[in-house]
Design brief:
- With 101 residues, this protein is an alpha+beta fold.
- It is built from three helices and five strands, in the order βααββββα.
- Strands 1-5-4-3-2 form a five-stranded mixed β-sheet.
- Strand 3 and strand 4 form a beta hairpin.
- The chain is globular, with a radius of gyration of 13 Å.
């Protein structure tokens, strides 16, 4: 299955890298590696995750308090956002609305 990561999701990952790197040297790279691993597994398991905020599947990341929000259309997965789970649900919903393809 093809996983396509939209620009909106790439921005939130970049923000996470900067945040974690400011906390501890090397933690930003570990965060990125963890997210990339989760995205690879999404290519296998896309579609099995519960839907949130209407029509967005939500995959909880394995190592950090983030979730991957995506849509599945046939053999293609579009990742709209990768967001911090500690944020207000209204903020998350707003980010998903802004991230529409």
């Amino acid at each position: 299955m093809r996983v396509r990561v939209l620009v909106s999701a790439r921005r939130t990952v970049a923000d996470g890298i900067r945040f974690y790197e400011s906390q501890q040297l090397g933690l930003g790279a570990y965060f990125l590696n963890s997210i990339m691993s989760d995205l690879r597994s999404l290519g296998i398991y896309a579609g099995i995750h519960q839907k949130h905020f209407g029509s967005y599947h939500r995959m909880i990341c394995s190592k950090f308090p983030f979730s991957i929000y995506y849509r599945k259309d046939g053999e293609e997965v579009s990742v709209l956002a990768i967001l911090d789970d500690r944020r207000d649900p209204n903020f998350i919903e707003g980010e998903l609305r802004k991230a529409k393809e």
